[in-house]
TrEMBL record:
It is an enzyme of class 6 (ligase). It comes from the Bacteria. This is Lysine--tRNA ligase. One of its GO terms (biological process) is lysyl-tRNA aminoacylation. The gene is lysS. It comes from SAR86 cluster bacterium. Homodimer. Keywords: Aminoacyl-tRNA synthetase, ATP-binding, Cytoplasm, Ligase, Magnesium, Metal-binding, Nucleotide-binding, Protein biosynthesis.
Length: 496
């Protein structure tokens, strides 16, 4: 903000503080006794179709509403204002004829942003706008800072994220996104409950970094004198519940990954993870599809949508293996090349794709997929048969042991869900934990720790199961056509 604007805002705040002092002298400027019995949108819904004559005939009295003044026109003995509550806007009409003269004179000095309570009767103006003829009004909360300009709203992107309350206050489209977010999460919870899953809560602070391949946040527990890790994923705890006898569990959770900020990533994000014993991978792909379609229906989203300029058909779910997709999009690679480390390394180098010394053929194959295929997966696509090397918690495919029984769902070129048949062989899992520890010792900051307690749990016996993790934030982005994750998080992480 430039110096002139800062000076102007300071003067406005000083003027409002003088008004606050006057209000305090006469009583409280921050009351808590007014209890509205109506919402703006409900009034429009119930009476918006009534004509001027019908409203007069019905004589709808004792309407009370509380909201923020967002527009005001003072015209001598009569004034109009627009109040905004959590549901929307409604016009009010205040005159000397209907309210005490001193109250009316006070009202003329009230500012945009002040929160007020009014009571009155519904009518239609000469311009046919549904309006409340005010009989009583009171100041509830005095606003000391000016609202953003009424016509421009809050347009500064940085301010919208840092001061989300102003964004919500002035931009109805922002509020609608977060209302839809709640409806989407509610739809996800309902379909899981309907499918017989038990919702659970697992720890957010872990003694070991695990559950996914990602770099963790580290914190300190003073009383215990030990480091703890903010949850990367709840996976290993949810699978302990399978050992304990729960056969269908899910958690809508906050997870944390110590990675960079971007339009696609926030270090704190929301996922839904679920696990079902005795299920097939196809069962869970079908459920994943149903969750997405159910969420779209919950917010009246069409099957053909646009997301960040990309046209997507949510009614067209397809399925293919990772290797088939790599070959389809890279004609200079053959099927024999895909398990040949030298050929894969040569391909990566020729395409200026950076590789790490610790990578085997499975990791290199995944990198080729991520760099050359992902962006082309526009309509919903389930990708199956991931290399075991990059799937440390997944069960091996019995016919192709170099691959895991795993799938990922891509829409609009981005990953939305990751699922796999869970590894329940304690010896195989222990061996893969050893590989992860070796990778960490070699400098891989995303590799997992060796979790002995989880191995002990598996030694007690975990039934065969399939687990899936789905990014909630990204699903909301898709269904509300938002290009940045910051637009679907009320308070995204920002650099200080």
């Amino acid at each position: 903000m430039d110096k002139d604007n800062l000076s102007g805002e300071k003067a406005l705040i000083e003027e409002r503080r003088k008004k606050l002092d006057q209000l305090r002298d006469r009583g409280s400027a921050y009351g808590n006794s007014f209890k509205p019995n109506n919402k703006a949108q409900k009034l429009h819904d119930e009476f918006g179709s009534f004509s001027k004559e019908e409203l007069a005939e019905k004589d709808i009295k004792n309407i009370s509403i509380a909201g923020r003044i967002v527009l005001k026109r003072v015209m001598g003995k009569a004034s109009f204002a627009t109040l905004r509550d959590s549901s929307g806007d409604i016009q009010i009409y205040v005159t000397k004829n209907n309210v005490d003269e001193d109250v009316y004179e006070d009202f003329k000095t009230w500012d945009l942003g002040d929160i007020v309570g009014i009571s009155g009767k519904l009518f239609r103006t000469q311009k046919d706008e549904l309006t409340i003829d005010v009989w009583d009004l009171e100041m509830i909360t005095k606003s000391l800072r000016p609202m953003p300009e009424k016509f421009k709203g809050l347009t500064d992107i940085e301010a919208r994220y840092r001061q989300r309350y102003l964004d919500l206050m002035t931009n109805s489209s922002t509020k609608e996104v977060f209302i839809k977010r709640t409806k989407i999460i509610d739809s996800m919870r309902k379909i899981m409950n309907k499918s017989g899953y038990l919702e659970v809560e697992t720890p957010m602070m872990h003694p070991l970094a695990g559950g996914a391949v990602a770099r963790p946040f580290v914190t300190q527990h003073n009383a215990l004198g030990q480091d703890l890790y903010l949850r990367i994923a709840p996976e290993l705890y949810l699978k302990r519940l399978l050992v304990g006898g729960f056969e269908r569990v899910f958690e809508i959770n906050r997870s944390f990954r110590n990675e960079g900020l971007s339009t696609k990533h926030n270090p704190e994000f929301t996922m839904m993870e679920w696990y079902q014993a005795y299920a097939s991978m196809q069962d869970q792909m079908d459920l994943t599809r149903d969750i997405i379609l159910n969420a779209a229906e919950a917010i009246n989203c069409e099957s053909k949508i646009s997301w960040d300029g990309i046209e997507i058909n949510l009614g067209n779910f397809t399925q293919s293996t990772l290797t088939n997709l790599v070959l389809e999009h890279n004609k200079d690679l053959s099927a024999d090349d895909l398990d040949n480390s030298k050929k894969l390394e040569e391909f990566l180098n020729n395409n200026n794709i950076k590789i790490e010394k610790s990578w085997g053929p499975g990791r290199m194959l995944l990198e080729i997929f991520e760099e050359t295929v992902e962006l082309n997966l526009i309509d919903p696509t389930f990708v199956t048969e991931y290399p075991v090397e990059v799937s440390p918690l997944s069960r091996r495919n019995e016919e192709k042991p170099e691959f895991a029984d795993r799938f990922e769902l891509f829409i609009g070129g981005k990953e939305f869900a990751n699922g796999f048949c869970e590894l329940n062989d304690p010896d195989d899992q222990a061996s893969r934990f050893v590989d992860q520890v070796a990778a960490k010792d070699s400098g891989d900051k995303e590799a997992m720790d060796y979790d002995q307690d989880y191995i002990t749990a598996l030694e007690h016996g975990m039934p065969p199961a399939v687990g899936v993790g789905m990014g909630v934030d990204r699903l909301v982005m898709l269904l509300t056509n938002q290009s940045s994750i910051r637009d679907v998080l009320l308070f995204p992480q920002l650099k200080s």
